[in-house]
């Protein structure tokens, strides 16, 4: 496979999502949530977050704030069941 063949892969869209925590509530409680409501999650500040690409766990990271936007810094890459630490 040549360099020009791999270039076509750059235009393939992927879905990237980060799980910052989970919570379980009843539908009735969910329907009563209003703007500004706080939903308690099972993770604490400073705990790693999971990063998924196309619903597959690929990395872990830490939440960061960049120019008033929430972002994620990757701290570990998960490959075939192994965790590879990165340095920042």
Description:
The structure is a single chain. The longest helix is centred in the middle third of the chain and has 6 residues, at 27-32. Strand 3 (56-66) and strand 4 (69-79) form a beta hairpin. The protein has a five-stranded antiparallel beta sheet, with no helix packed on it. It is elongated, with a radius of gyration of 17 Å. It has helices spanning 3-7, 27-32, and strands at residues 16-19, 49-53, 56-66, 69-79, 82-85. With 88 residues, the chain is mostly beta strands.
Key traits:
single chain, 88 residues, mainly beta, Surface presentation of antigens (SPOA)
CATH superfamily: SpoA-like
User: How many distinct beta strands?
Assistant: 5
- The spatial strand order of the largest sheet comes to 1-2-3-4-5
> Alpha-carbon distance between the termini?
32 Å
Instruction: Estimate the helix proportion, in percent.
Output: 10-25%
Mean pLDDT: 84
CATH architecture: Roll
Structural class: mainly beta
Please provide the ordered H/E string of secondary-structure elements: HEHEEEE
Structure in a nutshell:
The chain has 88 residues and is mainly β.
Topology at a glance:
Blueprint lengths: L2 H5 L8 E4 L7 H6 L16 E5 L2 E11 L2 E11 L2 E4 L3
Antiparallel strand pairs: 1-2, 2-3, 3-4, 4-5
